[in-house]
Specification:
There is one protein chain. The protein is an alpha/beta fold. The chain folds into 5 domains: 1-41 and 161-179, DNA polymerase, domain 1 (Orthogonal Bundle); 45-152, Beta Barrel (OB fold (Dihydrolipoamide Acetyltransferase, E2P)), CATH 2.40.50; 183-240 and 650-691, no CATH class; 251-440, P-loop containing nucleotide triphosphate hydrolases (Rossmann fold); 451-606, Rossmann fold, CATH 3.40.50.300. The strands form 4 sheets. The chain has a 7-stranded parallel beta sheet with strand order 10-11-9-12-13-8-14, with helices on both faces. A 6-stranded parallel beta sheet has the order 15-20-19-16-18-17, sandwiched between helices. A 5-stranded mixed barrel has the order 2-3-4-6-5. Helix 17 links the parallel strand 19 and strand 20. The protein is globular. The protein starts with 16 loop residues before the first helix and ends with a helix. The relative contact order is 0.09.
Length: 691
């Protein structure tokens, strides 16, 4: 039974009904409360609709007129232009859309229309490019659609802006009273925040742009604050817990140091010292280790595992893929050779007999370090004394999966999270706000910077000549093709045909292809042959940006590079440059969109993972950047961690203040506020606090 009018099912709201309710559910709107908190994506100023003759090129303006004509022209292959001419008493203007021919059907001669967009002058004619538009009628002359700042929402095709505004206005008039303020007045005054009810009304129907900015500020603050508060509480909970105290001067650490085939970089030594301080503190370590591909994170993790062994504890090393787990195992075998420390690989597909024996060795403590995928978090896996959990690319795992691993220890284990995806500071504050951060910002000595160049499809002959030179020098080459769900079969066919073309172009060298439709043993054979230099050119459609370490591979060719994300391009580039040869990353493509041009420009201009991550975050947003929504954090509706960085930092300060000794609010009010925040956050608070 509903506990609040705000939980009333959306279909029972006036003007909705079952059909519209189904469309609204696709937007995440299932009840009245969801509707009130569903923010516009833009606001159109219709408080002043200018005559067409008074419009200023370069400005975003609102125009109101009558449709004179609508037409669509096919200019060239794959390009259509739809034009709609509207006029008022002072003149006319042409609305233009590219490759959206269906829009022509929306307009009939004589229709009354309102448009909002950027005004341009093209060959002496006023144009409004790709405008927001609404057909209007005399009955629309109300307080919701015209003569004011009007909200523009992200909607599905089956719900119009006018219908949605009407629903929101009805909900505000009848249900806003049930929204309760959860922050006390003295808190709001300290951080300059508007009242919640006032802000919710103004986010939809602001009286002015000033009131809109104040409303946005309050609601963005709320989104950041509830997350920062939950992360704060999680950190306090962890600090109150007892952790295992590791021996940081044990014999195995000394044996390991003597057997190491190379010296640590300065950055690696610094991070090892940070880890030693954590694991000897008596509190559970919770540390994020960031470092570019090839920077030596696994070595640092192995040193932490050796310290655990010295202290009588086991280490679990959780990797997101079998390829990456196997890669870590090979690294472990090299590093641990002759030390007496035993590592074991456990994968989901292992033969039952072998797996059973491996699990028994883990349970009895014969195994010191277990490396594996999701297979090591299953209920059947038992440790004798788990003391350290190393989680590689944590965002690839669900919240509950990570928690399941940690529960296998009698006392909360130390946690080291590794990522080759550099996390920008603002994202680290939200995703890893409860975590200490270490950075390996130094590559091993002798590595040469990878040269990155962009080739257009038209210059393939020059590219092939370059590849032939590298092959004759004894180098090996990756060629990666994009593979997306929407056109997977076509992409795969194209990749297979392209590999055949490459094979015929370089008959003196052996070419092979790996892709997701192949069986694992077949892929493994090809990968082994590439590692043993029996294959010279490896074409791939599978994700090879992690888990392959082949020092002799000196060229990475990425076909249709404009179809890859920035972080993915950077990860692929990191597959080469692991030996002493000069390495190259060749981006092949003809970017046509502004975002694609930006991505490839960034790739050719820098190899700094953090700069690339910042750019990628700005282009894609945090949800896409992480590649999954499994990190346990709520999605922000209004807040943007790039553009709203100052509000994020203020929200963090506010969360710190509320639970600190410096908070001068009445103790009872503090506890009441904390309870209110937990109630407001609901399931999101619980998810963040798992583990």
């Amino acid at each position: 039974m509903d506990t609040s009018p705000l939980e009333k099912e959306i279909q029972y709201l006036k003007g909705v009904g079952p059909a519209r309710a189904s469309a609204l559910k696709k937007l995440g709107i299932e009840n009245v409360g969801n509707l009130l908190y569903y923010p516009p994506r833009a606001w159109a100023d219709r408080s002043e609709i200018k005559p067409i003759s008074k419009l200023i090129p370069g400005q975003h303006e609102t125009v109101h007129g009558i449709v004179v004509m609508a037409s669509t022209q096919k200019i060239k292959f794959k390009l259509t232009i739809t034009k709609v001419v509207i006029q008022d008493k002072s003149g006319h203007i042409t609305a233009v859309w590219y490759n959206q021919p269906f829009i022509e059907k929306q307009f009939k001669k004589g229709d009354e229309v309102i448009m909002f967009g950027k005004i341009d002058m093209f060959r002496g004619v006023l144009q409004i490019n790709n405008p927001e538009y609404e057909l209007s009628s005399p009955e629309d002359n109300d307080a919701v659609n015209v003569n004011r700042i009007v909200p523009v929402y992200p909607l599905t095709e089956s719900v119009t802006q006018k219908q949605f505004r009407k629903m929101v206005k009805f909900a505000l008039d009848n249900y806003l009273q049930y929204i309760t303020e959860y922050l006390p007045e003295e808190f709001r005054k300290k951080f300059n925040l508007e009242e919640l009810q006032k802000s919710l009304f103004a986010i939809h129907f602001p009286e002015s742009f000033d009131s809109l900015e104040k409303a946005k500020y309050r609601l963005i603050f709320d989104e950041f604050f509830t997350v920062q508060f939950a992360l704060n509480m999680k950190r306090k909970k962890m600090q109150a817990q007892q952790g295992n105290i590791f021996n940081i001067t044990g014999e195995f650490k000394e044996i390991f140091r003597q057997h190491m085939p190379f010296k640590l970089t300065g950055a690696q030594r610094r991070v090892v010292e940070e880890i030693k301080k954590d694991v000897s503190s008596g509190k559970p370590m919770n540390r994020l280790l960031q470092g570019d591909v090839g920077s030596g994170k696994t070595v640092v993790a192995m040193i932490a595992a050796v310290i655990a062994k010295d202290s009588g504890f086991q280490t679990a090393f959780l990797a997101p893929t079998e390829i990456l787990a196997a890669q870590h195992m090979r690294t472990a075998e090299k590093l641990l050779e002759g030390t007496g420390i035993k590592a074991e690989l456990i994968l989901g597909g292992a033969a039952t007999k072998n797996k059973k024996a491996a699990l028994e060795r883990l349970k009895t403590g014969e195994t010191d370090i277990v490396i594996g995928t999701h297979a090591i978090i299953q209920e059947t896996v038992e440790f004798k004394n788990l003391g350290l959990a190393v989680i590689d690319e944590q965002h690839r795992f669900g919240v509950m999966q990570r928690a399941a691993l940690l529960k296998k220890a009698a006392v909360k284990p130390h946690v080291l999270i590794m990522t080759a995806t550099p996390i920008p500071r603002t994202l680290a504050m939200t995703v890893y706000g409860d975590t200490d951060v270490s950075v390996i910002d130094e590559l091993p000595p002798g590595r040469k910077p990878i040269k990155t160049v962009l080739f257009s499809e038209a210059k393939k002959d020059r590219l092939y000549a370059f590849l032939e030179e590298r092959l004759k020098e004894g180098g090996q080459i990756y060629i990666v093709y994009p593979l997306v769900d929407v056109s997977e079969k076509l992409d795969l066919k194209s990749a297979i045909e392209s590999e055949k073309e490459i094979a015929s172009r370089f008959p003196a060298f052996k070419t092979a292809i790996v892709h997701g439709q192949m069986k694992k043993p077949e892929r493994d054979v090809i990968m082994s042959e590439f590692k043993e230099k029996k294959v010279h050119i490896l074409a791939a459609t599978t994700v090879i940006e992690v888990g392959i370490d082949i020092p002799n591979a000196s060229v990475m060719v990425i076909e249709h590079a404009e179809r890859f994300g920035l972080s993915q391009l950077h990860q692929l580039r990191g597959r080469v440059g692991r030996g002493d040869k000069q390495s190259y990353c060749i981006l092949v493509g003809d970017p046509s969109t502004e975002d694609a041009i930006k991505r490839l420009t960034v790739m050719t201009s820098t190899s700094d993972g953090f700069k690339i991550a910042e750019e990628d975050l700005a282009l894609r947003g945090p949800g896409d950047f992480l590649g999954t929504k499994q990190h346990g954090l709520p999605e922000f509706r209004l807040a943007n961690i790039i553009t709203d960085r100052k509000i994020l930092e203020l929200a963090k300060q506010a969360a710190d203040w509320l639970v600190s000794d410096n908070c001068d609010m009445d103790h009872r009010k503090i506890n009441e506020t904390i309870d209110n925040i937990k109630h407001k956050s609901g399931r999101n608070y619980d998810l963040i606090n798992i583990g």
